[in-house]
């Protein structure tokens, strides 16, 4: 005769590894070809942890320390996942058929500026900074052909030095650069993806050189939003001290006149622009501009990550003509690490490179809905670019493709 009490006790003990801290996945995700986990605060085991436990704000939760052996095993399992949901909405956005592939394994250094060009079906991205290139300077970029799976190195005409951010608009690549000190200062350039001809369209603010551009986005009216950061000087790519604090510039596409719209003593990094869902002909705010501050990264005299540095993600309303930001509010502070590359999807969801993976953030409540992981270890997610139902991630470790995403991601413009 089976001892029912002992059987229940055994089942409870074995279930502890998979169900104590982690919530049970929806049935359709239990048989997914990808590995999923669900961490929900509706689960008392998440809301109240057995003490002692600890985690650095710069490390992913799965890297935390805890005295409870069963929960420690579950955290170890999280490192084997492809997707971690923190909110039920994440399941609907990503869907059960999504897969992530590490399509190009490259050097463990920074990769930036991903651009997916749907017309050519190619992904443009860069290797950025030291130790690569010539003393950290790169005069070439990567081009990944999606159909053939071929990765090649290309040069624009003339060469583009130290590209750091990229957006495709009207089938043209718009790229921001750090420049390289005395040879070339930070610029905004346009690149023809068929001929690779490069044209500089902006390189100064009333004769003041830019610090070194980090990223950009283009709004639905074709205007540019540029983040000018101290990263280039901090990593030795330029040889002059930055002339002002990190700044975000709005550039009118018709006049090409730049205007500072945001200044920080931390660091300007990613930027994403989304249409205001409440916009109307009478509205004074057409776009919402999202800016992560990465003052957490400190450079000279010592390169380090300071957990007391700013790493918040802020939302701002942009005036109907652009150029004036108002109503700044803290939307989100990363669960771990800091937000680097940032993009807004067709529906306004925010996708942010966040170290261990790409966080998906809801623009209304600021909650992190889930994470698309890039495999742990030395891999690190930096930048994102959208296709229709897929996205590409670049970072330390190379290029990843995320396919068969349920929600459509690419914007109307």
Automatic annotation (TrEMBL):
Keyword Transmembrane annotated: no
Protein's UniProt keywords contain Nucleotidyltransferase: no
Position of the signal peptide: 1-19
Keywords tagged on the record: Signal
Name of the protein this chain belongs to: Lactonohydrolase
Originating organism: Paraphaeosphaeria minitans
């Amino acid at each position: 005769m089976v001892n029912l009490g002992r059987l229940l006790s055994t089942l409870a003990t074995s279930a502890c590894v998979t169900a104590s801290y982690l919530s049970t996945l929806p049935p359709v995700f239990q048989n997914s070809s990808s590995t999923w986990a669900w961490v929900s605060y509706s689960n008392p085991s998440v809301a109240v942890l057995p003490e002692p436990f600890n985690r650095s704000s710069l490390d992913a939760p799965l890297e935390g320390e805890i005295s409870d052996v069963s929960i420690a095993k579950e955290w170890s399992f999280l490192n084997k996942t492809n997707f971690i949901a923190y909110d039920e909405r994440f399941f609907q956005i990503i869907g059960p058929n999504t897969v992530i592939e590490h399509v190009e394994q490259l050097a463990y250094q920074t990769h930036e500026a991903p651009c997916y060009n749907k017309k050519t079906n190619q992904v443009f991205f860069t290797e950025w900074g030291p130790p690569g290139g010539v003393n950290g300077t790169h005069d070439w970029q990567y081009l990944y052909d999606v159909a053939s799976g071929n990765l090649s190195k290309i040069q624009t005409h003339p060469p583009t030095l130290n590209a750091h951010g990229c957006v495709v608009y009207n089938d043209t690549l718009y790229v921001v650069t750090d420049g390289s000190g005395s040879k070339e200062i930070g610029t905004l350039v346009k690149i023809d993806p068929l001929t690779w001809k490069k044209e500089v369209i902006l390189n100064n603010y009333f004769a003041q050189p830019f610090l070194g551009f980090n990223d950009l986005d283009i709004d639905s009216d074709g205007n540019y939003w540029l983040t000018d950061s101290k990263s280039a000087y901090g990593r030795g790519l330029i040889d002059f001290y930055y002339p002002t604090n990190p700044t975000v510039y709005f550039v009118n596409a018709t006049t090409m006149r730049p205007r500072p719209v945001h200044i920080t003593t931390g660091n300007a990094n990613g930027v994403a622009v989304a249409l205001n869902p409440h916009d109307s002909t009478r509205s004074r705010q057409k776009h919402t501009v999202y800016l992560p501050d990465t003052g957490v990264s400190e450079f000279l005299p010592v390169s380090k990550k300071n957990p007391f540095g700013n790493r918040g993600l802020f939302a701002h309303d942009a005036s109907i003509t652009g150029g004036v930001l108002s109503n700044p509010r803290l939307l989100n502070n990363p669960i771990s690490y800091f937000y680097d590359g940032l993009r807004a999807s067709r529906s306004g969801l925010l996708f942010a490179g966040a170290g261990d993976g790409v966080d998906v953030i809801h623009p209304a409540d600021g909650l992190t809905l889930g994470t698309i992981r890039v495999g742990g270890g030395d891999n690190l997610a930096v930048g994102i670019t959208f296709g229709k139902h897929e996205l590409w991630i670049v970072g330390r470790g190379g290029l990843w493709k995320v396919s068969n995403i349920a929600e459509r991601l690419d914007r109307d413009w």
